[in-house]
Amino acid sequence: MAAVGASAARAALWAVVLVNVVVVEILFVAGGAGKNDVLTVGKFLGVHAALLMMVQLLLVARVPWLDRRLGMDRLTAWHRWVGFSLLWAVVLHATVVVLGYATLDGAPVLRTFFALAGVVASLLGMAAAAVVVTVAVLSTRWARRRLSYETWHALHTLLYLALALALAHQFLETTTFTANAWAAAYWWGLWILTVGAFVGGRFVLPLWRNAYHRFRVSAVVPESDTVVSVHVTGRHLDRLPARAGQFFIWRFPGHNRWWQANPFSLSAAPDGRSLRLTAKAAGTTSAGLRAMPVGTRVFAEGPYGAFTALQRTRDAALLVAGGVGVTPIRALLEEAAGDVVVLYRVQTEADAVLLAELRDLAAGRGAQLHLLTGRTSEGARPFDPANLARLVPDLTGRDVFVCGPPAMTAAVLRSLRALRVPARQVHAERFSLA
Fold first, then answer.
1. What is the sign of the dihedral through the CA atoms of 309, 312, 318 and 320?
2. Confidence at residue 1, expressed as pLDDT on a 0 to 100 scale
3. Distance between CA 109 and CA 86 in Å, rounded?
4. What is the DSSP letter of 295?
5. pLDDT of residue 369
6. In degrees, to the nearest 5, what angle opens at C-alpha 324 toward C-alphas 224 and 68?
7. Segment 252-309, tens digit of pLDDT
8. What pLDDT is attached to residue 285?
9. Is the separation of the CB atoms in 317 and 399 below 8 Å?
């Protein structure tokens, strides 16, 4: 079953990481001793900082096999936590190395620091550490809330510079994995595979797919005063491995600036002939889609996400949507099989995007559709445990797919836990770049 596939992917990922950590530690013990015990500890921390950097790259490499089973949001969350582990490993490595050389030379710590800065290999390592610390500070919630996404993302790409500096530092450093040719080959082989996966997933595959499919805007259809659907066509779309529930990162060069990118879900199941995204005017980029001319070139990265029917573990399903979060739910309903219930939460029926399509699809598939209206502030709480159990009495026997505003999604997930719906049957994904 697909859920087993997700568990297997998680187990496989961390098993690969763990096995390589163990192998590297064995190689380190066999030949990684420093000039004194303090420097040996510093080298040990440096090796593990490099391993954490490899894991960081792998988690955001957008490897299709992992992304399709685990989802970009989960991989990105792991990337964030590994990032803070990397920060402490880098800081401790740098601190212990300076202390180790100060102890070895019998010199003051500050003088030792400046002496090491005069050595090219050490200076490169210091520069890499400074970049990692800077990006980590800018990634804290306090700093992140004060920066636009574009600014934060541009600063975050400084980690590529840190990677280059760290690799140069390791290459020039001649005291670790150099005494044994097999150890050196293993270490640099890990780096080649990791960087290769990152470059392939983030650059080579998107460039190849866009050159091959040649995406273009074929129609722009207003759905309401604030919502618009964009139809995209191209060559050989039947060979694009997209599923209902997935999303792409969309760019419209020529209409918007190149760095303006948005993650929009497919609002219709891919049919091999065209793709459709439906977006609400929540910002300058999405608001401008309404004026986009037919024929505009499209650069699409994806498909991404594990919010698909591949995750189903039961014959019955509950699809829960809120606001414009209905777009992947509508696509899932289009290809859904079995007993399906749809809950669509909006303030008023006028806010219900794609409602006519949902009703047609529900009627054609024998699905139940409940439109849940009203303001939460006025007492409308359909996702409280008691209300949710009343709407869907056999809830624990269904897979549940949830997509909507963060507050609504959190409320639904809390109620599902209270109602003891097994975690393996609950599927929620945040479609976001950061």
1. negative
2. 42
3. 24
4. T
5. 96
6. 135
7. 988 777 778 889 999 999 999 999 999 987 666 666 888 899 999 999 999 999 999 9
8. 66
9. yes
| Spans in the chain with pLDDT lower than 70 | 1-5, 149-150, 282-287, 377-379, 430-434
Determine the Cα–Cα distance for residues 53 and 93; give it in Å rounded to an integer. 14
Question: Nearest 5 degrees, angle CA 330-CA 334-CA 337?
Answer: 120
Q: Are 237 and 212 in contact (CB under 8 A)?
A: no
Question: What is the pTM for the complete model shown?
Answer: 0.86
Contacts of 328 (CB under 8 A, 6+ apart): 244, 245, 246, 247, 265, 266, 267, 307, 403, 431
* Residue 90 and residue 49 in contact, taking contact as beta carbons nearer than 8 Å: yes
Beta strands in 254-397 (DSSP E): 262-265, 274-280, 299-304, 316-322, 340-345, 368-372
Q: Is 192 helix (H, G, I), strand (E, B) or coil?
A: helix
Q: DSSP readout, 415-426?
A: HHHHTT--GGGE
Query: CA 260, 263, 267, 272 torsion: positive or negative?
Result: positive
3-state helix, strand, coil in the chain (%, to 5): 60, 15, 25
User: Which residue type does 324 have?
Assistant: V
* Enclosing H/E stretch for 228: strand 227-233
pLDDT of residue 271: 94
In which region does residue 224 sit, left (phi positive, over 0), alpha (psi from -120 to 50) or beta (all else)?
beta
| Residue whose pair of structure tokens reads 């804290």 in the numeric block | 140
Specify whether the CB–CB gap between 190 and 20 falls below 8 A: yes
Enumerate residues 6+ apart whose C-beta is below 8 A from 412: 320, 383, 388, 400, 402, 404, 428
Pairing of strands 247-251, 227-233: unpaired
